[in-house]
């Protein structure tokens, strides 16, 4: 799928609008788009919508042996996928440059910031630790994947609960949710990325660029920060010519945005927690915006299955009963058998014992010719080789293919060779001869 | 089985203006039944009696009736034998001969331009298919420019071909679209609505302030007003029309003109 | 003439035959091709079988290895089936890792094993939580002339019937496992699933055991797997032309007959190599 | 408990269904489909330009991708993609768009049982939303056979686990025929036919749900 | 997580049972060793060859050696290729996962792929001089070999089979290529041995595979290595190997003739059938 090209007039208009401090969606330069967080029924699952950009995140866990270098620490694994549904031009399984850099940035934001305590994920030092896996999927790309993914990632991590475990001696017991309440991860702080797009050689900057704005921007600056105003990651890309005070300005804006977003996240987490605790409804079904005309819901509906048994019985009764007549197998040689007659196959059919005699006889008559062929070779060595084929007899009724490697059990077929012995292969999968229907002509 | 299929069928007239789904069978008045087959043949042969029914987008002939192949609202135009078609809210454009569309130039290749029109393959447009163009006097077209043109060839088996002149060699409004202004995309359903004669939305908008507007059947809209701000307002209103009722739209417009 | 007609209008060519209730290769609509099985031909495998359905040829080799059971199923061994469609079996297959068709076939075989319980994974466990058998069942198509699934299921069954596992004991003192390669036992095969595939022609006609050509022209396929008790181990209809329940029942009826044929065949071939 | 009562009634229940159409801005068609807590998101692009290697001369080349929520797609996903693709192909009038590509991507959002039927429903809704020409609709229905032999409609993950067999069908809207069938576990012929007959009944309810969803969507035109 | 997601995977690690039966395994090897001792070093193994057995491939051949080696080959060509210049021969060599003794081969694993690629390259070396590639400009010829069971001398068998398959496909060739393998046992002063079996190959001090174009009497490929020996020693090996190739040639030729006859007969039958039906 090819992406639609950007026309010259769009490019010019967008840049002019930015100069006039106008944005397509009516935002101010430093405005973030609306953020919506919804949780799945599973723990550690959320969808974050940043305007029309949408990211799904899911956290999962598994008991694994720790890394040898860090025997008392859990393992963290992060992965963002750009699903081909997110935009035309994204292909499955392709590690584009964009994807690699996004993953590296998220890794730095979530792992290097040490926001998750990995020591608490150790079960048995050097033997078993929890591996926490965070999968993120971009579902719709309308710009600023970084921020959306970083929010989705941290929300999913906060929402996640791993099974409780206990260790007694060597025995590790993993409890089901019914036995013991699952435990949350211990998260020290929540780093959140805020992206700034730069235009006109760094003169203008926009927070949270949309996809179209990204297509005309010169460069991007991403700052990850937590609500304690600690910068966790800072990274620029593209052509960014920044003055020191611009970076300072950006970090101040970041602090404000991070505070807002953190509050929003916490509220969303609390609401979900409350719904779960009070036995209310939760999960994606609850977060579907009912008022929209594009959504529709149906309550649990009954399906009448009263007489399906009769209906099924009728179908079976009407069908013909299974035929009692069927072909009986013919065993050719030990280990090889066949059912069905007839159709020639180019692999040749396997031997049929009754015909062996015929083969034998013909073989005899050909023996002389065959030996001639082999004379020289047999002179030079005790050649154990046997012929692969019968020489040319084109009798139309019976033409066969013969087989050199006869099993020991059938010594009569060793024919002129005297030396065939131990190397006989034990089976005859490929000993074959062509059999024609004699009746055919 | 045939009986079952019949049971599903509903008289076409009864469903006009209603939502139909693929697989629905529309029954036509009985007198169409006998000669349903070979419909097209006779049409082209010109021997068909008047009152031949036209079967438009989203519908197929199926025995005596019509089979719906797209979801949307069933439309009917009386007159002659009448015409039925399905109006659907689709985003992806499929070129149709005679459609006026906005294309983006993606390449110049020999004597033709390649244009992205949002279909499954690029359309071609000859250098000479502009008003007044000759071998010497070629139009000044750059990659990335917008062109408003019309399909002269568009079918499923051939590469679509566009021109910017009508049959008399005049541009009649087609050609390169100005360098200013803004391009955006809406659903094909909305475009059809906007292009309908006496479209309320356009009429209401035109009372706000003057602006230029080009509507492509491929869902692309180019708009240019005096200022960036004014252009943006038009863009936002048109985009919002996708899901607004007339009532909501009037309220929004009133708010704007109040400002 | 006939050859040219076949090339230009293959579908019409087939229809002419099907109208007369027969197929270009002389079979009736409900007739299988010659089925041949040969077991034990690969001596480097712990069990093997070569199955031919007409031209279609499939070989299955089983290798048995030892591994600790998975944490969440401490009393179970593993069965790992994989179907390969190497580039030599037909022109359309590329070399390299398995494509969609091979992967779908692998999953189908895995489902048949699981659904039929032909081998109970608990039987493969040697010491709870410590040691279990891993049966790698590699099914390779050597010549693809249609109906891969039937041939593969049969080859798998025949190869598993052919498997001889050495005796493994756990030495109580040392806690180590000991393998006695001299003493071998066959696997316990609890069920004998047999697959029967059909191609759907022109949305209505069902023909059994389709060739590659027939599969190409068909508008869909159905595979029914039954066991010796006539239970359904798989009803696999991967899309294609819609069918009624009654048509599906016809397929099942044919599959039950086919099961009897194949079961007899496998019993006979196993008997032929069993030392008396 | 509730389940037993339903069986006693001779009735089976679908879990609450919801669906949102056109929720993604980039794809040409999109739909989220929820059955209870199971949910699948579908996005569709096309008919678009096909890669030459994938181009088909006489019809559109349909590609279906199924993305699991955790990890990369594997053999199971590949085999389900084949089921889904061939089901879609059976109703899609691909001959109307030769040499083009249609790409349908399904993302699992939550698997709480009957996932394959939810995938089928999401796929069909996305096809509808994209406005592709279809000869008919299809819907997915999953039945579980409980150890006591009773049949259970639209089972949850736990019910699937406890079941003796799980059968999933894709039913076409024309004549309620079977487009796709796949089974897990083993069952008798009678049981299979019962589930099929019941699935055909359930299909009517689901198609009505489709119709109501689309009606609501077009309610403001 | 570099897991193979295109195949069904079992446990991350598993061992063949023979590992746990160390004592027993040695016994077995000894037996084999003893059995091999009286083998005549110049003896060839029984050879079975058959051409034209696959229905889907344009050309095909199957070669089986008495030691248990089984190779199946298919050939296609010519097919249109994008790149200009003379025709290209694409060779593929695959080992069935169950082809070897001991642990199952892991298809797709790096080591496995590397070994297969090396064998494929050797195959191409051996075959290219035999094929009239100049006759197929802008075209591709393809040969795939599948080793079903490795009983030693596998590459040599694959070379013979691949040449047969190409010839069977009707590809224009100067000559057939015949492969032959040799090895030198580890014992000091041991002489080279023709067509080693798998255990012999495994223990060998030096190995050599060569391909001969018998009609032209030209060697098309030599691949060997191991503990060094004097040049005369290797020359001796070469002579022995060439002799081995020459001795195999009639059998291979015969199988091709057979295949051609069979094809003619089938065509005649088909023609007759068409005639009667008409």
From TrEMBL, chain B:
Q: Which UniProt keywords apply?
A: Acetylation, Cytoplasm, Exosome, Isopeptide bond, Nucleus, RNA-binding, rRNA processing, Ubl conjugation
Give a GO cellular-component term.
Answer: nuclear exosome (RNase complex)
Gene from which this protein is expressed = EXOSC3
What does the subunit comment say? Component of the RNA exosome core complex (Exo-9), composed of EXOSC1, EXOSC2, EXOSC3, EXOSC4, EXOSC5, EXOSC6, EXOSC7, EXOSC8 and EXOSC9; within the complex interacts with EXOSC5 and EXOSC9. The catalytically inactive RNA exosome core complex (Exo-9) associates with the catalytic subunit EXOSC10/RRP6. Exo-9 may associate with DIS3 to form the nucleolar exosome complex, or DIS3L to form the cytoplasmic exosome complex. Exo-9 is formed by a hexameric base ring consisting of the heterodimers EXOSC4-EXOSC9, EXOSC5-EXOSC8 and EXOSC6-EXOSC7, and a cap ring consisting of EXOSC1, EXOSC2 and EXOSC3.
InterPro entries, per this entry? Exosome_RNA_bind1/RRP40/RRP4, KH_dom_type_1, KH_dom_type_1_sf, NA-bd_OB-fold, RRP40_KH-I, RRP40_N, Rrp40_S1
Per UniProt, residues of the Exosome complex component RRP40 N-terminal domain are 18-89
Q: Which Pfam families match?
A: KH_6 (PF15985), RRP40_N_mamm (PF21261), RRP40_S1 (PF21262)
The Gene Ontology terms for molecular function here are: RNA binding
SUPFAM superfamilies, alphabetically? Answer: Eukaryotic type KH-domain (KH-domain type I), Nucleic acid-binding proteins, Ribosomal L27 protein-like
Q: Taking the first listed entry, what is the main subcellular location of this protein, grouped into a coarse class?
A: cytoplasm
Say which family it is in.
Belongs to the RRP40 family.
Show the CDD domains listed in the entry.
KH-I_Rrp40 (cd22526), S1_Rrp40 (cd05790)
Q: Recall the taxonomic lineage recorded for the source organism.
A: Eukaryota, Metazoa, Chordata, Craniata, Vertebrata
List the protein's name.
Answer: Exosome complex component RRP40
Chain ranges of the K Homology domain: 181-229
Annotated localization = Cytoplasm; Nucleus, Nucleolus
Automatic annotation (TrEMBL), chain C:
Its annotated compartments are: Cytoplasm; Nucleus, Nucleolus
Positions the record marks as coiled coil are: none
Its GO biological process terms?
A: exonucleolytic trimming to generate mature 3'-end of 5.8S rRNA from tricistronic rRNA transcript (SSU-rRNA, 5.8S rRNA, LSU-rRNA); nuclear mRNA surveillance; nuclear polyadenylation-dependent rRNA catabolic process; rRNA catabolic process; TRAMP-dependent tRNA surveillance pathway; U1 snRNA 3'-end processing; U4 snRNA 3'-end processing; U5 snRNA 3'-end processing
User: Keywords of this protein's UniProt record, alphabetized?
Assistant: Acetylation, Cytoplasm, Exosome, Nucleus, RNA-binding, rRNA processing
Q: Looking at the keywords, is Acetylation present?
A: yes
Q: Which domain of life is it from?
A: Eukaryota
Q: One Pfam annotation, family name?
A: RNase_PH
Keyword Cell membrane applies: no
GO cellular-component terms in the record? cytoplasmic exosome (RNase complex); nuclear exosome (RNase complex); nucleolus
All copies of the Exoribonuclease phosphorolytic domain together span 31-166, 193-256
Q: Which SUPFAM superfamilies match?
A: Ribonuclease PH domain 2-like, Ribosomal protein S5 domain 2-like
Q: Which GO terms describe its molecular function?
A: mRNA 3'-UTR AU-rich region binding
The family line of this record is: Belongs to the RNase PH family.
Protein name according to UniProt:
Exosome complex component RRP43
Q: Which organism is it from?
A: Geospiza parvula (Small tree-finch)
UniProtKB/TrEMBL annotation, chain D:
Keywords assigned: Cytoplasm, DNA-binding, Exosome, Nucleus, Phosphoprotein, rRNA processing
Q: Which organism is it from?
A: Geospiza parvula
Q: Name one GO cellular component term.
A: cytoplasmic exosome (RNase complex)
Location relative to the cell = Cytoplasm; Nucleus, Nucleolus
Q: How does it assemble?
A: Homodimer. Component of the RNA exosome core complex (Exo-9), composed of EXOSC1, EXOSC2, EXOSC3, EXOSC4, EXOSC5, EXOSC6, EXOSC7, EXOSC8 and EXOSC9; within the complex interacts with EXOSC3, EXOSC8, and EXOSC9. The catalytically inactive RNA exosome core complex (Exo-9) associates with the catalytic subunit EXOSC10/RRP6. Exo-9 may associate with DIS3 to form the nucleolar exosome complex, or DIS3L to form the cytoplasmic exosome complex.
**Keyword Cell membrane attributed:** no
Q: What is its main location?
A: cytoplasm
Q: State what protein this is by name.
A: Exosome complex component RRP46
State which residue ranges cross the membrane.
none
Q: Cite the source lineage.
A: Eukaryota, Metazoa, Chordata, Craniata, Vertebrata
- State the similarity comment: Belongs to the RNase PH family.
GO annotation terms (biological process): nuclear mRNA surveillance; poly(A)-dependent snoRNA 3'-end processing; rRNA catabolic process; rRNA processing; U4 snRNA 3'-end processing
Alphabetized GO MF terms: DNA binding; RNA binding
- Please give the Pfam families that the UniProt record associates with this protein: RNase_PH, RNase_PH_C
Automatic annotation (TrEMBL), chain E:
Instruction: Tell me the keywords, alphabetical order.
Output: Cytoplasm, Exosome, Nucleus, RNA-binding, rRNA processing
Q: What is the first-listed, main subcellular location in coarse terms?
A: cytoplasm
Name a GO molecular-function annotation: RNA binding
Note the InterPro entries from the entry.
Answer: ExoRNase_PH_dom1, ExoRNase_PH_dom2_sf, PNPase/RNase_PH_dom_sf, Ribosomal_Su5_D2-typ_SF, RNase_PH
Statement: the UniProt record of this protein carries the keyword rRNA processing: yes
Tell me which SUPFAM superfamilies the record gives. Answer: Ribonuclease PH domain 2-like (SSF55666), Ribosomal protein S5 domain 2-like (SSF54211)
Q: Which domain of life is it from?
A: Eukaryota
Q: Name one GO biological process term.
A: nuclear mRNA surveillance
Region annotated Disordered, chain positions: 1-40
Its cellular-component GO annotations read: cytoplasmic exosome (RNase complex); nuclear exosome (RNase complex); nucleolus
Biased composition range(s): Basic and acidic residues: 1-10
Record localization: Cytoplasm; Nucleus
User: Has keyword Chloroplast?
Assistant: no
The family classification in the record reads: Belongs to the RNase PH family.
Q: What is this protein called?
A: Exosome component 6
- The species this protein belongs to is Geospiza parvula (Small tree-finch)
Which gene specifies this protein's sequence?
A: EXOSC6
